[in-house]
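hey so u asked for the seq, here:
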Amino acid sequence: MSSRGNPSSTPPVPESATAGGAPVLPPEGTLLTLLRRVAGSDYWLPLFVFIGVAAATATLYQALRERERAVITMVVAERSAKIREFIGSKTANTLQLLSRMGQRWDAAGGTPYEQWRADTSHHLNQLAGIKAFEWVDASYHVRWTEPSAGNEQSVGRAVHPDAAQAAPPHNTAAPGGTDTPFLDFTPGNGTIIAYCPLSKHGHSDGLLAAVLSLDELFARIARREMAQDFEVVISAREQTLFRHPLPAGAAVASLADHGVVEVNNKAWRVTVTPAAEFVASLQTLLPEVALGLGVLIALLLAALCRAELIARRHVGALATSEETFRSAMDSASIGMALVRPDGGFMRVNPALCALLGYQAQELLGTDLQSLTHPEDLERDRQCVQRTLAGESGRYRLEKRYFHSSGRTIWTLLSASLVRDSGGRPRYFVAQIQDIGEQKEVERLKSEFVSVVSHELRTPLTSVRGALGLMAGPLAVDLPHKFRELLAIAHSNCERLILLINDILDIDKVAAGKMRFNMQEARLADITRRAVEAIQTYAHRYQVGIELAPLDPQLRVTVDEDRFVQVVTNLLSNAVKFSPRGARVRVDARAADGWVRLRVVDRGAGIPQEFRARIFEKFSQADSSSGRRAGGTGLGLHISRQIIEHMQGRIGFETQVGRGTTFWVELALLPARAAAPPLPQPRSALTGS
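ran it, structure tokens below
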């Protein structure tokens, strides 16, 4: 948080302090618990809204369906009326023809057979639906028939008694002396017979009969009006005279239309039933569309209603949370601030103002960059960039700020990034704690350790030299017990010197006084130096070291002595934690402008609980007094400091029971072009 930005005096409330939705209740398996949960939630009003809109939608759907059914019923009724009108008109035309024929009979005073035959033949060819004409004499027996071929058995046939009795008496008052034709049925053969009374010189001369085929009579009706859309049934006296079935599909009986056709003295009942496909062709998707839209609108309104309820509750919770956060922030004993990603202050608390010596308005008008010590700006900027990139949600950093008086203040900065619901950074919540006293204590302790180390190293060097002489050639004449004591003393003296050297190295790194002589070097050469330096130590533990062939073109910029110190430390750790007879492997791999040097062992691995602090000071996985591997616990910490000062990286990979791999990564230098071969001297003997 070291970049500049415009100040703002309206801080948002940290998301961590706001309500995150409906309260979470512990799960219980009873219906009563479920009802309580629903009753105490934001679902009641949205549920009522949904039910109300859904009910209105259902009513609208039913009304549209009923209106659609009424339209279909009206269409069927119109078509049925046309069918009945057509039936009545065609049947009346046939009966009118029959009546005109009777009138000509009466006018002629009887008709000779040949003339009657020619007349009826003409009408048979011109008028559909008539199968035959017959003349029934006064005794009600058939005398003539046309066509005669095929109807010979009809001649002499007595007319049905009912028809004879139903024939009205001759009405001399009627025009031409002819009565209106009447109809009679011939059950079972699909025909009806129309009878027209005849008169001759004012006396009854029998009946003129026309045999009508219902199938032929109504075939034209079917072709014109019925087609494939309707089933038509014509019936009289509970008998079906004609049925026009549907060629395929089912009829919708609930939409059938019933009517009556009056034909002279007969009443025909006509039933017209629409086909399912015809009904479907009249139906639309409007009711379904209205229903779907209504349900969708109900869901949207319910969702909006619930969102509004939740928003209102969150606004109240947000206000409460904001007040709580402001109160906690203002009463905090350490400095706190809300800081934009660009570094500008959004809100500061009194403790921070007292720490830095500024008024709140003064801080809101500036940013962290102008208050940060120049030597700490880059580290702070890197931490901010990593946090904004999502590598971590927070970071901690010891850094220095300038007090309003100009003096420097050491602080511990703890920053957490708050993001919005879309994952975009909003602001940092910064806690700034004064660690000036702690830093002073560390400085005094460091100076004390440095003084003690320097004062101890000189006499220890003399003691180590003396013990080395005594434990060497001078120990030949000493008793065995004395030689063991000298060896132990010499070993402990060596350990003390290593500890003092490590402490001095840490002190130099912390104080920035460790010097680095950075030079280009071949990785293969300096790695071989480290392996050769550790061979004697590895023999003591009976562990072999395998150096894989390294590419001589791999070149890096390092302090060779310090890099050898790091590799030697990694090798010594690998040797200490490897079983006897094992081998430690050293190899290197180059990729993407970096080279990774690896030290691989087959030891017990690093325990999970120790991995996070493996690079800390005095850190040891086994700190018991009886541990097999010795050491100060400072080697890895010093190695990390050295590698980071050389702009490199250090890390490890481990599996418990299978071993550990420590690695060091350094930037590769571009490969140099091969030098041209030197010219060969000419031979003095051959002259070539």
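The radius of gyration is 58 Å. The chain has four domains: 68-276, 332-434, 441-511, 519-686.
lmk if thats what u needed
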